[in-house]
Every structure is written in structure tokens, then in C-alpha cells.
Design goal:
CATH superfamily of the largest domain: Periplasmic binding protein-like II
Distance between the termini: 63 Å
Keywords: DNA-binding, Transcription, Transcription regulation
Strand content: 15-25%
InterPro entries: LysR-type_TF_proteobact-type, LysR_HTH_N, LysR_subst-bd, WH-like_DNA-bd_sf, WH_DNA-bd_sf
Order of helices and strands: HHHEEHEHHEEEEHEEEEHEHEEH
Number of domains: 3
Shape: elongated
CATH architecture of the largest domain: 3-Layer(aba) Sandwich
Radius of gyration: 29 Å
GO molecular function: DNA binding; DNA-binding transcription factor activity
CATH topology of the largest domain: D-Maltodextrin-Binding Protein, domain 2
Structural class: alpha/beta
Family: Belongs to the LysR transcriptional regulatory family.
Protein name: LysR family transcriptional regulator
Length: 301
């Protein structure tokens, strides 16, 4: 007996509620399908269905077997589809969501190479600082730097750690009567990202491992990291950023890292995508590409 075919028959009968309905769907006779399920029961040594003139009902063993049937058959379908699509050139429109800062500062480093390699993929970018509803907005892949993931229904693949650092412009530091240290830091204005729950609060860990929290006064707040970056470079105060946002400005001297031996809670660059039995070739291609790119540290070197 073809056990795989019998499992397919059993699932169809259960899903459609009768042998007759399954027979119409498959074009096979009621008798043939019934015989397949009976042979399956004989081979398993367990009754799977209670049969009456009115309806079918799963036995306890049938319920257990049905659950495993669904998993196995779905995995087989996914494997068949993946193997088929593996032979195809990734193509089509790929909707990619990134934050505004990531889109402006990071995509230029690797997206041109990806587009050149996969000429049949058309990228449609959605740049926003809010967490998108990927299913509602039909997003294929989302790249986010965050310390929390609000939607556990998404698959989250870690790509890279993201260090958070304190910075200020040389022009701001020159105006100070005393150098900045951990004791006087709280006296300085913090350029704050007002989408945070507590935008004026800093958490710092000193080299010894002790932790310190402080609430700093506000001079400028904004809902845009890029606007705060410009304010920091303009000398308006101290700011706390993911390093990738200010890495170039620190390297060329427009900003100076403060208290480099102290640490703030780090964040992570994630690739997020909806749960699925398989990934479309276009999504898999981009996911593998960015993972390979960020496998080597890119910031602070």
C-alpha cells in the first residue's frame, strides 16, 4: 500500500467530513478511498474513524494520527515547493521595511550589490520608524534595530549587535568649563528621541559593573533620529545613538564619543518575516545576502 497516498486520503476525508466529499474532490470512488483508509488502519493496528450512516468521527488514535499527518504532508508540500523554486531565478517585487535612519545610512552600503546580483527582483522600500503590521501591509521582510520585539508571531533572525553610545560635538565640548564625566553628565541637556517611553532617562554601566540611572534635562526632542543627529553635530547637546547612526561622524571628528568605558544597554539588528512553511526565493535571497553582509562587524572599526 502507498502509505503516503493513504495519508493524503485520510486527511482529505477528515477535512471534508465524509468519504463522498473527498471522492468528489479527488475523482476517485467512495469505495477506493474507504479501502485505503481501512488498509491504513490495518497497517497501524488502530481504528482511526468511527463510521456511522450520518457522519464520521475521529477516534483518539485518529486525532493523534491526523495531527501528525498534517505536519508531515505540509512539510512534504513545502519541501517540494522549495526544491522547485530553488531551480528558479529569484524574481518579482520584494517589499522591504526599514527605519528611516537605517534606510538613509545603511542601505547604500549593500543594496546596490544585491540589486546587481538579482536583476529580476524589484525592491519596494517602506521607510518608517514605527513597527509595521507585516501581514496587513504586505511586507515581505523587515530590518529593525531594537531591544524588544513586540510581535512574537514573526520569525526574528539576529543579524548583528548594535552598540549604543553617547556623543557630543567638539563645538559643544569647547564651551564647557569642565570636561564631561559620569558625575556631571546629568547636568547636561540630552537630545532625546521622543518616541521612547522615557526619552530623558539613561542607563549606564561603569567599568566595574555597577549600574547608574539618570534623568537628564531636555533641550531638543524629536521623533526623527536623523534630526537629532543633525542637532548633535550642530552642538546643541549630548545624544545617545545606535553606533551605526553616528559612526561616520565619530570617525571624521564631527562628533566625539563620551565615556567610552561606560556601556548602555545594547540593541540588535533583526530580520523579521512572517511565519511560513517556506520562504519565497526572493525573500530568502535578500535574507541570506544581508546576513552574510553583517556577519563581519561593520560599525566602530
Amino acid at each position: 500500500m502507498d502509505q503516503f497516498s493513504a495519508m493524503q486520503t485520510f486527511r482529505r476525508v477528515v477535512d471534508h467530513g465524509s468519504f463522498s466529499a473527498a471522492a468528489v474532490l479527488t475523482g476517485q470512488s467512495h469505495t477506493v478511498l474507504s479501502r485505503q483508509v481501512k488498509n491504513l488502519e490495518r497497517q497501524l493496528g488502530s481504528q482511526l474513524l468511527h463510521r456511522t450512516t450520518r457522519r464520521l468521527q475521529l477516534t483518539e488514535a485518529g486525532t493523534m494520527f491526523y495531527r501528525h499527518c498534517v505536519q508531515i504532508l505540509d512539510q512534504m508540500d513545502a519541501m517540494t515547493l522549495e526544491l522547485s523554486e530553488h531551480q528558479q531565478q529569484p524574481s518579482g517585487t520584494l517589499r522591504l521595511s526599514v527605519s528611516s535612519a537605517f534606510g538613509e545610512l545603511e542601505l547604500g552600503h549593500w543594496l546596490p550589490g544585491f540589486v546587481e546580483r538579482y536583476a529580476q527582483i524589484r525592491i519596494e522600500l517602506c521607510c518608517t520608524d514605527r513597527f509595521v503590521d507585516m501581514l496587513e501591509e504586505n511586507i515581505d521582510l523587515c530590518l529593525r534595530v531594537t531591544d524588544h520585539l513586540p510581535d512574537s508571531s514573526l520569525v526574528a533572525r539576529k543579524l548583528a549587535p548594535s552598540e549604543v553610545i553617547l556623543v557630543a560635538a567638539p563645538s559643544y565640548l569647547r564651551r564647557l568649563p569642565n570636561p564631561i564625566n559620569a558625575d556631571n553628565l546629568g547636568e547636561h541637556p540630552l537630545l532625546s528621541y521622543n518616541r521612547l517611553a522615557q526619552p530623558q532617562r539613561l542607563q549606564l554601566t561603569e567599568p566595574s559593573g555597577s549600574q547608574r540611572e539618570m534623568v537628564m534635562p531636555s533641550r531638543v526632542s524629536a521623533n526623527s533620529p536623523m534630526a537629532l543627529r543633525a542637532a548633535a553635530i550642530g552642538g546643541l547637546g549630548i545624544a545617545s545613538f545606535d553606533r551605526f547612526i553616528v559612526d561616520d561622524a565619530v570617525k571624521d571628528g564631527r562628533l566625539v564619543q563620551l565615556l567610552p568605558d561606560w556601556q548602555q544597554p545594547s540593541r540588535t539588528l533583526y530580520a523579521l518575516y512572517p511565519h511560513s512553511r517556506y520562504l519565497a526565493p526572493k525573500v530568502r535571497a535578500l535574507l541570506d545576502y544581508v546576513q552574510a553582509y553583517y556577519q563581519r562587524p561593520r560599525w566602530g572599526h
